[in-house]
Design a protein that fits this description.
Chain lengths: 114, 113
């Protein structure tokens, strides 16, 4: 399975500001996925990031709010822009392992917006 | 109808018993299913995935898939208190270029002493 790290692990931010979350994988992967898990809820896919092209966003998520970069096959960033308290969530990146086809998650970034 | 459905629980089983977690899905085209375990405050951990009809066993865990009934389950034998967690069922939505996961709401399992 892939080893995935995320930075920061948690942050407390003021409304109206932006936070960029980094995701690093220990092997090259084609697709990286960004999910959100709101308090007490299950996971919701935000977008799929493919190296060399624009991210594909799910219904309800837009690039202006959640810009994503994917500069190479082991790294991606998700920015949460112009934050409001409703953005308080855990943000997770995941990758599909080319070895076994399983999808593995990073440790997550716990964001609190005040 | 949600694409992947689970009973939210909590499901309470005594230590040493078999815990049975169930999941139904709506897309007959789904080809694979994933079970994740999530401890409170942690990220989901992949514990099993299954592609074929029938059973797949890994240690104390058995995944069962019935495509005709659109039903997938996870059995945990000899349940331990450390198995107490939320179990998430997920199915990929294939777009042709990526496999995205859609998750059930999760079932909270409590293993009691």
């Amino acid at each position: 399975s892939a080893v995935i790290s995320q930075k920061p692990s948690r942050d407390i931010c003021q409304r109206g500001t932006s936070l960029t979350i980094q995701c690093q994988v220990d092997s090259q992967v084609t697709m990286m996925f960004w999910y959100r898990q709101q308090p007490g809820q299950s996971l919701t896919l935000i977008a799929t990031a493919n190296q060399g092209s624009e991210a594909t966003y799910e219904s309800g998520f837009v690039i202006d709010k959640f810009p994503i970069s994917r500069p190479n096959l082991t790294f991606s960033t998700l920015t949460v822009s112009n934050m409001s308290p409703e953005d308080s969530s855990i943000y997770l990146c995941s990758v599909e392992s080319p070895g076994d086809g399983g999808q593995y998650f990073g440790p997550g970034t716990r964001l609190t917006v005040t | 109808q949600k694409e992947v459905e689970q009973n939210s629980g909590p499901l309470s089983v005594p230590e040493g018993a078999i815990a049975s977690l169930n999941c139904t899905y709506s897309d007959r085209g789904s080809q694979s299913f994933f079970w994740y375990r999530q401890y409170s405050g942690k990220s989901p951990e992949l514990i099993m995935f299954i592609y074929s009809n029938g059973d797949k066993e890994d240690g104390r865990f058995t995944a069962q898939l019935n495509k005709a009934s659109q039903y997938v389950s996870l059995l945990i034998r000899d349940s331990q208190p450390s198995d107490s967690a939320t179990y998430l069922c997920a199915a990929p939505i294939n777009t042709g270029t990526a496999s995205k996961l859609t998750f059930g709401t999760g079932t909270r399992l409590q293993v009691t002493l």
